[in-house]
Amino acid sequence: MPRDTEDAIGTDVGGPLAELADLADLILNVGRLVRARTPEGPDVVTLTETERQVMRVVDLYPGAAPSEIARRTRLQRTNVSTALRSLEGKGMVSRTATEGRGVAVRATERAAANLRVLHAAWAQELAAILGDDLDTVRQCTRLLSRLEQRLTADDQT
């Protein structure tokens, strides 16, 4: 249920920008709530928030260099390096040398299997809440995909 942004504490944005601010706020909260319902157990590799961000870019841009991952995630290069070492240790990514001193990062089969388990759990969770309103789900997915593509694009500063 939308809240009245004019009555919200600390909201200085009005008009259509308030609706965009509400969208951002909802995206962050829904993401947190979905993560809180992420299954645990031997079939799921537990990741930190930074590792999740890095894995998302690795999935979207297979073969990306660590510097590209840092740029697209807006994370410090040292934090990406730390996350990549941890992800490699967990069997989630592989790094291979490219021309010169470059490195290409790719998700492993273990990462793909992990993502399949998570997708199945998330789909069940959301199906129980949203039912069969797939037209709205598709519209929402297209909007969020467009946002993600723009927010991870190289031309962003």
Describe what this molecule looks like in 3D.
This protein has 157 residues and is mainly alpha-helical. The protein has helices at residues 16-36, 49-60, 66-73, 77-89, 109-130, 134-152, and strands at 93-97, 103-107. A two-stranded antiparallel ribbon has the order 1-2. The radius of gyration is 18 Å and the shape is globular.
Q: Poorly predicted ranges (pLDDT <50, ≥5 residues)?
A: none
Sketch the topology as an H/E string, one letter per element. HHHHEEHH
Q: How many H/I helical runs?
A: 6
Sheet with most strands: strand arrangement? 1-2
Share in helix: 55-70%
What does the largest sheet look like?
A: 2 strands, antiparallel
How many E-type strands?
Answer: 2
The assigned structural class equals mainly alpha
Question: Termini distance?
Answer: 33 Å
Give me the secondary-structure topology.
Elements: H1 16-36, H2 49-60, H3 66-73, H4 77-89, E1 93-97, E2 103-107, H5 109-130, H6 134-152
Antiparallel strand pairs: 1-2
Helix pairs in contact: 2-3, 2-4, 3-4
Which terms summarize this structure?
single chain; 157 residues; mainly alpha; two-stranded antiparallel sheet; 2 strands
In brief, what are we looking at here?
The protein has 157 residues and is mainly alpha-helical.
